[in-house]
Amino acid sequence: MAFSADELRVLRRALAAALKPLPAPAPAGSVPASRDPRRTEEVRDCLRLAEALDEAEREGGRLRAFLLADLARYREALPGSAHGYLERLQEALAAGYVPGSDDLAALRVLRSPAVGPAERARRADLLRRCEQIAERSARTRLRALPGGRAADEPERPAQPQPAPKPAQPGPAGPRPGRRGDRPVPTPGEVFPPRRRPTPPPAARTA
User: Fold this and answer.
1) Considering only CA atoms, which of 97, 104, 93, 99 is closest in space to residue 127?
2) Based on the number of CB atoms within 10 Å of its own CB, is 106 exposed (0-12), middle (13-18) or buried (19 or more)?
3) Is the pLDDT of residue 171 over 60?
4) Which of 10, 101, 189, 192 could form a disulfide with 45 if both were Cys (CB 3.0 to 4.6 A apart)?
5) Burial degree of 98 (CB within 10 A; 0-12, 13-18, 19+)
6) Is 130:94 a contact under the CB 8 Å cutoff?
7) Long-range contacts of 78-87 (CB under 8 A, 24+ apart)
8) CA distance 79 to 104
């Protein structure tokens, strides 16, 4: 992104105003800073500079989209468009492009023995550069995901498991002599002893 001489002067004044400490309160009867013609002109220049920066950013996005579309067209026309594809790829890398799997596969195919040693070495260097950029981008995306940094953290020692508690004794089984929940009657309960008849009371004497 390039600035003109006027834009650089405006940017320098804006930076100086941002770094300048807050001014003291204006004395009574003085002209407010909002009505100062010089202050008003500086605000207008800053607004124009902000609009120019926004337009430059939009133009950069349009150029990037055109460059990527042109790169895709040259990649689809390989191997006949190898020279133009390599130039577009280097321009895209300079603009911050992250090569994909299609670019890596195309560069591996272009390292054929049909080209000279110097050109083959240049293409091999470009392939290594693209592989490093793609690997660094993939590592960054993994770390940005939830839980993605778990692989970078040291492994924690396993916590000792508590000893198992001894089994509690279950309820006692039925006592011998019982059938289920009802007790088995004894012979004395089945055949109670016969009682002897009691003698009549003796007659009272006069």
Assistant:
1) 104
2) buried
3) no
4) 10
5) middle
6) no
7) 78/106, 78/109, 78/110, 79/109, 79/110, 82/110, 86/110, 86/123, 86/126
8) 14
